[in-house]
Amino acid sequence: RGPGMAGSAFSMASVMERLASADRDFRYMALSDLLGELQRNTLRPDPETEKKLSRKIVDLLQDPSTEVQGLAIKCLPSLVACVRPDLAAELAEKLLKGLLAPEEPRPDAPSLGSKSARDVASMALRAIIHGISTDSPQARGLSELLTSRLLRMLSGHPQVKLSCLDLLADLVLRFGSDLSSFHSDLCTEFLLQISDPDLQSRKRAVQGLTALSAASSLRLFDRLAAELKSLLESSRTSEYRRSAVQALGGVCRSNAFHFSHDINAALPILLRFATAEEFEEDVDLREQCLQCLEALIMGGGSSLGPHVPHLVDAFRVCIRYDPNYAIDVDDEDEDDEDQMHDEEGNDSEEESLYSDDDDSSWKVRRAAVRVARALALARVLDAQGTYQQVAVVLVTRMKEREEIVRQDIISAFIEMMFDIESCTTRPEISSTSMAVDEPASEAVFDYRADLVNRASQLSRLVTKELSQRSVKGRIAALSLIKALVALIPEGIASSLLEMARSLDACLKESHTNVKMEALSVLQQATSSLPMIALSSLMDSLATSILDAIADRYYKVTAEGLRLCGDAMKRLVSLPEPDTGGSRPLARSARDIFLCAESRLAAPDQDSEVKDVAITCIGYAIAGYPRELESLTHQGVVSLVGRMENEVSRISAVRAIGIIGSSSASTCLEASLERIFGMISSFLRKNDHNLREACLT
Predict the structure, then answer these.
(1) Are 459 and 496 in contact (CB under 8 A)?
(2) According to the model, what pLDDT value does residue 6 have?
(3) By C-alpha distance, which of 568, 474, 584, 465 is closest to 521?
(4) Which spans in 301-402 are helix H?
(5) Is residue 515 within 8 Å of 507, Cβ to Cβ?
(6) Considering Cα of 36, then 41, then 45, then 48, what sign does the dihedral take?
């Protein structure tokens, strides 16, 4: 028993005895007890016990049982943290020797399969690197020891080298600032491995350089950037070019601020690899160059200015890269209905000409779309020039045959719309992001006019996408509709009415996410769309919205009730038509009220649903008392009863306030005495929100 362990249920002697047992269950339970004690940081063994315990844990790393072996690996980080620094170094030395062990099967442990002592030692060292705290007294010395030893072992067996590169990358990522004395050597070794014939070595070197760049000094970073640029220029094969580009992209993502100083040297090379005809067939190289350009754009900031036109040109070239598809879909005239029908009719014939499984060109197109998205997020597109060029291409490419690329195109177009919107409405952004010679008002007009001109084309593309089977594709299309309704409500109103049938199908969809997104589109329409268009839209979709309120999923129900409440709040101000017809939603007001009442009466209903149901009832009574007839009194009684319920009290008080401020306030007369009595008592309570609702 170690010092400080008196009276404890944990016995070191018992653990040591069970660790030496021939029964694997005993060994497992002993390790489990030891792990619990180590994690509580209460173990204080004497020096002799420390040595015995450390040796035993290292021995158990080669245990025939994989469960015992795994638990021994879990014990190592906590054990290293609690023993003396010299013993921790000794333990690390033993594990490093395990990396040099021959890769041979274990005859005494067939359950280990192909695992060798080298694999186990590598996993154990990785567990220590990731498990030991950076504030631990042993952390700095142990990390320096491991780094110096692993650097020397890089010249060994190829498999040993791979393990060493993995561990070095983990060490730099975890203890980068503590290893500043090794940064230069690490940079040299990683750069050397970038030119290694073995692909796995190059991949690990890329990971190491990415981690190193985050902790390196500016001087070392400049050296690293220069070396990578030199590798890009001198590479003679596509494999080495791809590795150099991957390293460049990783370094830029890891330390974008420092790399912005070297962007002028790297961009022309990457643009050439991405667009030159000589590299046209190298899909992986073009994709990685575009990914690297995306990282450069996100971190480049103001230094990107002169390069934006070249980046836009590269995007326009690469998004058209589709060697397996002969038909050019980039002409502006392609939005004609007849041509769309022709394309749909020829889908089966085109699909028979090539196999999508063998075609990877879509990766280049997707990477190009992400470059456009990065340009939008970096706010470097001006409203009159590059924005127009990118927008035209994105819209015409929404007929992309690959679903995942099509979704990214829609997402990028949405990002760009909101980016240019923020730039044209905020002067401090406009001055840096838009054309300087033209006034902001013209930029706003031109931007919105461009979207309005494209509204019918976009609505046809969206309608086609909504008819597809893909759930993600339909959600992306609905997101585009919502963005257009938010930005150009007047321009999209007529097109939205034409899409009513597609929206109705989405509301009846079995997939909850599609249904929620469709309700979200209508919610946006409720706040943005012109009143007449909103009235027609809600009347045409009323039945499907009522079905959504009756949905089993509470989120759909809540969103449907919220939509009805907001729609009634806005549409009730419309006058009755001169032709003698009914007001908007008048024919559905009774059904909406009954649906809300049934949801409110359900005993197991979610509180969110009850709150929006109460609000919906309030708007229904306030706006449509004549249509509800006798149900008005029933609704008021229900709301007054809800004021006595602590959970729904605030919502009920607000609903009473909505009715009281409307022309239907007379329906409260029979319950006024009870209402004022409860409100008076609520004003004495400590609930701030409740008192505010009562005063309102």
Answers:
(1) yes
(2) 38
(3) 474
(4) 308-318, 337-345, 347-351, 362-377, 386-396
(5) yes
(6) positive
**Amino acid residing at 155:** S
Task: Indicate if the alpha-carbon torsion angle 649, 651, 657, 663 is positive or negative.
Answer: negative
pLDDT computed for residue 613 by the predictor: 93
Q: What angle do CA 168, 169, 174 make, to 5 degrees?
A: 95
Q: Is 287 helix (H, G, I), strand (E, B) or coil?
A: helix
Backbone angles phi, psi at 583, to 5 degrees: -70, 165
Helix H, strand E, coil C: the string for 603-668 is: CCCCHHHHHHHHHHHHHHHHHCHHHHCCHHHHHHHHHHHHCCCCCCHHHHHHHHHHHHCCCCHHHH
Contact 51, 88 (CB under 8 A): no
Block residue for tokens 């030159």: 276
Q: How many residues does the chain have?
A: 696
User: What per-residue confidence (pLDDT) applies to 383?
Assistant: 57
* Torsion from C-alpha of 243, 248, 249, 250, nearest 10 degrees: 90
Q: How many CA atoms lie within 13 A of 316 on its CB side?
A: 16
Main-chain phi, psi angles of 96, to 5 degrees: -65, -35
Is the Cβ–Cβ distance between 451 and 438 less than 8 Å?
A: no
Tokens 């909406």, located at residue: 592
SS3 call for 695: helix
The DSSP call for residue 103 is -
How far apart are alpha carbons 227 and 585 in whole angstroms? Answer: 69
Q: What is the pLDDT of residue 584?
A: 76
Let me know: does 613 contact 554? Beta carbons within 8 Å: no
Residues of the chain with pLDDT under 70: 1-10, 102-115, 256-257, 260-262, 300-302, 326-358, 383-385, 423-446, 575-582
Neighbour-count burial for 479-509, b at 16+ CB within 10 Å, e otherwise = bbbbbbbbbbbebbbebbbebeebbbebbeb
Specify the residue for token string 């499907």: 544
Which pLDDT does position 10 carry in this prediction?
A: 67
Calpha distance 168→189 (Å, rounded): 10
- CA separation for the pair 603, 593 (Å, rounded): 18
Q: Using a cut of 0.90, tell me whether the model's pTM lies above it.
A: no
Task: Determine the Cα angle at 232 with ends 227 and 234, to 5°.
Answer: 90
Coil, helix or strand at residue 563:
helix
Give pLDDT, residue 628.
86
| Residue 134: predicted pLDDT | 84
- Distance between CA atoms of residues 332 and 427, nearest Å: 33
From residue 112, how far is each of 25, 85, 122 by CA, in Å?
17, 32, 15
- CB–CB of 567/534 below 8 Å? yes
Helix-helix angle 183-194:218-234, to 10 degrees = 10
